[in-house]
Predict the 3D structure of the following.
Amino acid sequence: MECLESLKHVNYDFYDIYLVDNDSKKESVDYILNYLENDSYYSHSLVLKNQLYNYVKSDDVDILFIINDENSGFAGGNNVALNYILKTKLTDYVLLLNNDTIVSPDFIDGLISKFNESDDTGFVGIKHYYYHERNKLQTVGGGIVDLVHGEAMAVFDDTRDSFDFITGSCIFTSVDVLDEVGTMNEDFFMYWEDVDWSSCVCEHGYKLRISNRGCIYHKEGASIKSLSRLYYHMRNRIFYMKRHTSGLIYYKFIIYIVLFALKEFFMNIYKNPKYSKVIINGLKDGLLKQNK
C-alpha cells in the first residue's frame, strides 16, 4: 500500500500499474482489494491469470490487479504482467518495481530521460536507499559479476558507467527491447534472474545504465527465509555460469564452487545440519538440473 501511495505523487501522468498477486494468502488479496475499492485516486479491475489473455483493458483502468494461480517466483510473477504487455502493446515502456519500495516523485522522469539518451540502452536502473535508513545507499541500481566465484555484487560508486546487471527491484526498459530479448527465465524462480536477464540484454548488444535523477527506498526482501535464500543463491549462481560462461572460466568456477560447498558442508554438519543440507542440495541441483 505504501508503494501504491508513493506512486500517486510521481511527476509523470501517463502510466498504468499492473499489480500481480503471486498466489499469496487470501487475506492479502482481500486487504489489497479493500484498499483499491475505498481509494478515490485509482480505478482498478481484477482479473485471474487464466482469464488474462482474453481480457481487454479499458483506458480508464489505472491498476490491473492480476491474481496468479501459483507462486511462480520473482521471474514468473513478473512475467505474467510482462507477457500481457507484450501481447497487448498498450505501452512503449515497462518498469519493474518491487512492492516493498517507495519512490521519489521524479524517478520515472529520470528513468525515461536516461533511457532515451542513447539508442543502445537496454535497461536503466536507479539508486536504492534503505527504507529504514533513508540516507544510506543500498546500491546505485546495478552491479558487477565476479566470474571467478560466481558472485553478483552491488555497486556503490555512482560515477561508474559500466554494469553487468541492473538490480531487479527497479528495471526500466522499452517494449521494443522486451520484445527482442524476451522475458525473464523462470527456471531461476528467485535470485539471479535479474542478473541473467541483464546478461541476455547485453548479449543482444545493449548497454546497462543508471539514472542520475530520483531514487527508491527499498525494504530488501525481509520476508524471504534465510535457508531458501541460501538454496537459491547456491543453485542459481551455477545456473547463471552455465548459461553465460564456457571453457576455462566455467571449469575453474565449478572447481571453486564444489570445494566451497564441501568445506561449508563439513564445517557445519554437526552445529548446523540444516545449513549443510541446503548447501549440498543447492550444489547438486545446480549441477544436475537442466535449465533453459
Residues 2-218 form a domain with the Spore Coat Polysaccharide Biosynthesis Protein SpsA; Chain A fold (CATH 3.90.550.60). Residues 150 and 169 are 20 Å apart (CA to CA).
